[in-house]
Design a protein that fits this description.
There is one protein chain. The protein is α/β, with parallel strands linked by helices. The protein has one domain (4-209): Dihydrofolate Reductase, subunit A (3-Layer(aba) Sandwich). Helices cover 18% and strands 29% of the residues. It has four helices and eleven strands, in the order ββαβαβββαβαββββ. The protein has helices at 30-41, 50-56, 124-133, 145-153, and strands at residues 4-11, 16-18, 45-49, 74-78, 95-99, 110-113, 138-143, 159-164, 174-175, 191-199, 202-209. The strands form two sheets. The protein has a nine-stranded mixed β-sheet, with helices on both faces. Strands 2-9 form a two-stranded antiparallel ribbon. It is globular, with a radius of gyration of 17 Å. The two termini are 20 Å apart. The relative contact order is 0.24. Residues 3-177 form the Bacterial bifunctional deaminase-reductase C-terminal domain. InterPro entries: DHFR-like_dom_sf, RibD_C, RibDG_C, Riboflavin_Biosynth_HTPR. Keywords: NADP, Oxidoreductase. GO terms for molecular function: 5-amino-6-(5-phosphoribosylamino)uracil reductase activity; NADP binding.
């Protein structure tokens, strides 16, 4: 059985995760970011694409207020061409890099080759099979827009945790989800809103697959 998949995203009001130059830290405020860490702590694994690694150099660890502790999830990077730098924060033990190329050494990260699509990127099916075999039952996707689009298009995103900041970044900003190539509204993936909650100046919106 595949993992339950949650897409967690922090955007502007107009659905952008960064400016046209790629600046994205921090769109949302401290309360929303803290809640993001709490969500991360409830998942077996968190996943990003290599573009997020190159742009933000994330740690993907759980960082909670003083006195609170939680285990870090497995960190997963989709990196078809193995562009993750050896000095990246994710190039360490506890990180799994999935690629379609012959594995090479990247710091202390584990590199695994999986099946690719026509463009040489890891297929969603191969990614989920690999994670399921490792006992991952819950996966949170944290970026970027192209990765989110792949999983949404595959119909496997079960829930969305959306943090929306009261700013506008415009059409040249980086979209939270890349092209879905939809010709008709009837083909659009549909979700049911569960809750909307203020988080400081931001909004936390929760959805599940309809």
């Amino acid at each position: 059985m595949r993992p339950r998949i949650t897409w967690k995203v922090a955007t502007s009001l107009d659905g952008r995760i960064g400016t046209s130059t790629g600046e994205s830290q921090w769109i949302t405020g401290p309360q929303a970011r803290e809640q993001g860490h709490r969500l991360r702590a409830t998942h077996d694994a968190v996943l990003v694409g290599v573009e997020t690694v190159l742009a933000d150099d994330p740690r993907l660890t759980v960082r909670l207020p003083d006195g609170e502790t939680a285990a870090d999830p497995l960190r997963v990077v989709l990196d078809s061409r193995l562009r993750t730098p050896p000095f990246a924060r994710l190039a360490r033990a506890g990180t799994l890099i999935l690629t379609t190329r012959e594995p090479i050494v990247i710091g202390e990260a584990e590199i695994v080759r999986v099946a690719g699509d026509s463009q040489g990127r890891p297929t969603v099916e191969a990614v989920l099979e690999t994670l399921s075999a490792r006992g991952v039952r819950s996966l949170m996707i944290e970026g970027g827009g192209r990765v989110a689009a792949c999983f949404v298009t595959a119909g496997v995103v079960d829930a969305i945790e959306w943090f929306r900041a009261p700013i506008l970044l415009g059409g040249d900003g980086r979209p939270g989800v890349a092209s879905l190539a939809l010709a008709r509204l009837a083909h659009a993936p549909r979700y049911r809103r569960l809750a909307v909650e203020p988080m400081g100046d931001d909004l936390w919106e929760r959805y599940e697959k309809a």
